[in-house]
Each structure stands twice: as C-alpha cells, then as structure tokens.
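Researcher: Here's a chain I'd like modeled. Treat it as a single chain, no partners, no ligands.
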Amino acid sequence: MAIADDWTINYGTQEISHTSGSTVYTCNEMYSWLMDTFDELGQLDDDVPMSAQTPTAYSLINGWAFSSDSDYEYLSGGAINDTTNDDLWANIYTLGTIVAGSQIYIEQDGAEITPWWSTDHIDVLIKVKASGVEIDSSVITVYIRDLGSAFDFFEIDLTAGGRNAVPLATATDANNQTAEGTIATWTDVTITFGSISRDLNNGNGPQPYDVEIDCGGRTMAQVYERLKWACRHNASGSLNGNPAEFYQSADEVTPYTPIKVAPFGTFAGGTFFGARGVWLTNYAANQTFQLTDADGDTQNPPNLVYVEVTSLVSGDSVMVAVLDAPAGDIEKDTYTGAASGNGSGDPDFVVQESIAGDTPSAGWFRVDNGDGTEDRYSYSSWTGSTFTLNATEHPGGLGRTYNSAEDVWVPLLDLVADSTAESNSLIYSTDIPVRIRVRKKGIIPFEIDGTVSSTGLSQAAIRTVDNIVT
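Model: Modeled as a single isolated chain. Structure tokens:
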C-alpha cells in the first residue's frame, strides 16, 4: 500500500496521523510524500509541514505535528525535530551479529520503553526531549538479555538527535542452556547487596566486597545460570536498588566497568570468574572460581581440595584419618591440650601448638582420655591454637575439664553418613596419607589407605554384605 493509504493529513488541526496499516515508512518517505502533496496548486495556500536538514534529519515546522507519539512507531531511518511542541525524536538502529530471535529492549530514565518492535535488529525513533526538556539527559541504554545467549548492552547519548548506530553482539552461551523454568526453581541461590569484608584464606586477609552470593550448596555452573536469570530481560524485582533487568555492576554510586555478557561474572572451563565486588559463599564441593574484590584486586582462592567418600548408605560410620606416614599408624598425637582454658562447659578447646594451615576449617577433633577412650567433638571454626565448638552439636560446651598433655587429633571425616556421599575440604599444602574406614553392621568393614593430593581425594566405599553376622 502507498503511504497515503496509511496516513491522513488534517489541514484544520495541522496534524499528520497514522490511521491504518502496519507498514513502517522511512522519514525520507514521509518527507517525500508531504513534499509531493504540498506542491499541488491547491495546497499553495498551506504552509509546508516538514523540512529536511539532511537525508536523515528532519523537522516538523509551521505549527504542524504528528497527532500522537504512537505515530512515530511507524517511522524509521531518520530523526525528527518537532518544532511545534519542542520535542525531539532521535533515530537509533542496531547492528552487529546477534542470535536470531533476540529481543532488544531499551531503558530510558530508569524504566523500559514499552516495545512496539519485534525481535532481531531494530530501527526506531525514540523521544528524547519533551516540551523543551531532555528526558534523562537524552541518554538511553539498549539491551539484549535473553537466556541461552551472552548478554550485551550499549549506552548512547542522543542529545544531538540524528541517526545513530547502536552496536550489539550476542552469541549462544553453551553454559546457559538449562530450561528457564528449571532455573527459576533454584531459589536457594540468594543475592545480598551491601559493603562487606571477607577473607578468602589466601594470605591476603579480609578484603572489601559489595554483594554476597549465597550459592545454596550449588555448583558454579548452576550459580552462573541463576545469576544470569536474575538480571535477564523482564526479570522481576530489583537488584542494588534498580530494576533487575538493568543491573550492571555491584557499585551503583561509582559504577565499575561492567561485564556486559554476564553482569555478576562469567563461566568458562569449569571456573566462575566473579565480577568486581562479588563474593561467593556456601557453594558445592570441588568448585573452582576467581574473585575480584571491591578494590579491583584479583583474589584467587587457596588450593582448596575436597576429601570425599562415596557409595555410602545412610547410617554408615565414616572416618578418614591422617596417618603418621604412608601405610603407617593413625596419627593420634597431632596436638597436645593446653595447660588451662579447657574447663567443663567451655565453648572451645585450646591446644599448645599452632593449628596447621591445612586443617579443615570445620570438622571434628578427638581428645585421648588416656584410658583407651576418646571424646569426640565437632568444631565450627579454628584460629591460632583454638578450636571453636559447633554450638548446635555441643550446646553445653566441653563435656568435662581437661588437663594439659591430653593427645588431640583431627580426622578429616568423622561422622555417621546421612547421604550417599560425605565430604570435607581443606587447604592443600602437601600430600597427606590417610586411612579410610566405613563400617556398619551387615557389611564387611571397608578399609583402604589413600593420599590427599593437590587434587583432593575421592574414594568409593565397597559395601560387601556380611553373610555371617546376625
């Protein structure tokens, strides 16, 4: 259809209106149609409604205007300065390689412009000045944030109007192919903003961060997908005080250089690379990551390795004990109880020596009573020469008063299994010879020696039925 079939000129009100059809015309086609219309002899008593400054820059003049903002949805390829209402409509068009079917959306003044365009590249006019006042300094941000693809966005200042290229680039994200409905159920991954100080135990001490991601025990691969989900197009709620779909960095006051493809951090080769200011906690065993603190310094975790026993049944008694030498005896004299400070009811246990750096950050220790029996305690942390008891398991503190010279040792695992696998972690410094034991009435006791190396240790228990026990 011709442009005259879709647009109507009202000479009385000096308005041009889009009245039918869905065809989008270029501004040059609109200008050319108006010039062709108003050059007729019968129109010479009317002022022309439009002038052209360049092939892509036009003005509505002489009191003429479009009847509504929605008329501009059917124009492309140029900018229009409405001198009657002192409005400015700048033209943007996207270019670059993007995933087919990508949905482009635009932020203006903290809100998404309701899109009238479909998927893939766009060529549209955006109102950046109304009644002589710039809308958010005429700055807009153009986004693509579809799950399954790398994200991208581009901020542009449209103060000058005109026709403006917006480069965007997306590609299929092989690490983000889980169904959106599945990712939506991973609600145990939480995001909490606020200045915090955290120690990665890598020798650099506490460092500042801006946001804590509680991984809910999930893998880095799952956390990566959930974090992309949290700031995808049409994500609900807010992140750091802004609509979630516009989130860019952990500091909104002095924004960090954003990671456009994945604002919270990228994932490659099985490793999560956190964006600046992002801290991770409560992640699954055997995960690798690299952080960047709020100061912009890279923080690599120490070589955290995992000791794991698999193929268990709930109720199995499991121990991984450190040996005094490969194939040697269980080392039961690693530490010596302190001369004082270990009274009945105390919430911690003190030893005379400094606790070794490769001791698990939480776990168990045993105290030799000297009569062939031992007291077993669970600890939640340690520092210096002190083990802090797990208050949940030992609400009453130490069960008795200990004197100095009790032998103390720290198994790497020492528990009754409640799942098919049990694990603990430690910072690797040197190989550790260990003995793995799994016992439960009804199976032949399983025992094997192994080594905790720079890659940790994973041992499957062999549960052979004991046909003799009754």
